[in-house]
TrEMBL record:
Protein name (record): Peptidylarginine deiminase-like enzyme
A GO MF term: protein-arginine deiminase activity
Organism phylogeny: Bacteria, Pseudomonadati, Pseudomonadota, Gammaproteobacteria, Lysobacterales
PANTHER family recorded: AGMATINE DEIMINASE-RELATED (PTHR31377)
Residues in the signal sequence: none
SUPFAM superfamilies xrefs: Pentein
Organism encoding this protein: Mizugakiibacter sediminis
Keywords of the record: Hydrolase
Coiled coil: none
GO BP term, example: putrescine biosynthetic process
Amino acid sequence: MTADGFRLPAEWEPQAGVLIAWPHAGTDWGPRLFQVESTYAALVLAITRFQPAIVCVAGAAVRARAAALLDNAGVDAARVRFVDIAYDDTWLRDSGPITLTDGRRFRLCDFRFTGWGGKFEASRDDLLVEGLAAQQLFAHAEHRRIDWALEGGAIESDGRGTILTTWRCLHQRHPEQPREAMAQTLRKSLGAQRVLWLERGYLEGDDTDAHIDTLARFAPDDAIVFQACDDAADPHYGELAAMREELAALRTADGRPYTLHALPWPRPIVDEQRRLAASYANYLIVNGAVLMPAYGDPADAAAAQVIAAAHPGREVVPVPCRPLIWQNGSLHCVTMQLPAGVLA
C-alpha cells in the first residue's frame, strides 16, 4: 500500500463498470470504421450483460451513431453512460485512469501518456483522465497527475502488492533510468511492495514494446495465464519459450512458484503482408465473467477452456477481435475497468 493506504486492485475484484472510447472517422480506425464498430458493439453488449459501460464519445454525432449501433445490437441503454470528451484514439487501457483504492476513497493515477514512446500523436489522450475527472464522473476520487510515462497495459497487479511488467517496455519509455529507480516509482505510485520483471516475450505487430497484457496475466490463487507458442517453425517460438521459463522461475510473495496456465497459439493472421498481434492473453475480466478475444481460429475454443480454468466460476464470453488487431491491439487494450464504488 501507499503511505496513506492506497493499493491497485486486481482486475478480478468487484467493478463499477468498464470505460471505453467509441471509434470514429477522425481516429486511426477511419479506413475500417464499419468493421471495428461491429466489434465495439459486440464488446459493449458483452460488458453490459454484467455491469455498466461508460462510453466516451467525441461529440454529438459520434454519440448518436454509437447509440444507434448499440441499440441495433440489442444493448440495454440503461446500462450505458455516454461521456462527451476529446481523444486521439481509443486505447483506453493506456490513456485511461489507473485507479487505486483504500477501500473507501479512490485515487485516479494520471500517468504521462506519450503515444507509446512517441510513436503516435497523443496530446488529447494525455488530457483524458483530467477531463473525465472534471466531468464529475467519479465519486470520492482524487485526481493525481504523475509526471512519469506509463500505460495501463504495461502493468499487472495481483491486488496484494505485486506488480508484473516487462523490461523491454519500461526501458523504452525511460532509457535513462536504472531498473531499481523504475521499480521504486512503481512501488511508490501504485502502492506495491515488489515488482517482477520479464526480460523475454514479444509479439510481431505489437507497437507497445511488449506490454505485459499481451503476454502474461495474473489470475486468482497465485496463478499466471500466459501466451504460449507450440509451433517450432514460428518466429515467436524461442522468445515465448524463454518467457515461459522466466515465469516458471518467479515466486509468490511467500516464496512459492506460481500456477501457470498456457494459452494456445492461434494461426498467423496477416494483413497486407503484416503479421498482426493476436494474443489470447489480452482478455478482460468483469463481474462474473471473462471477455475473451476471439479470432475465428480453431484455437479459440481451447483458449476459452484455459481461461475458464484460471478464473473458476466466471463465464467466458468470446468477443470477435480480428478488426482490433489491425491497429495492433486487442480487447483488453481498448478497455479500462473501474473498481466498485468509484462512479458517481
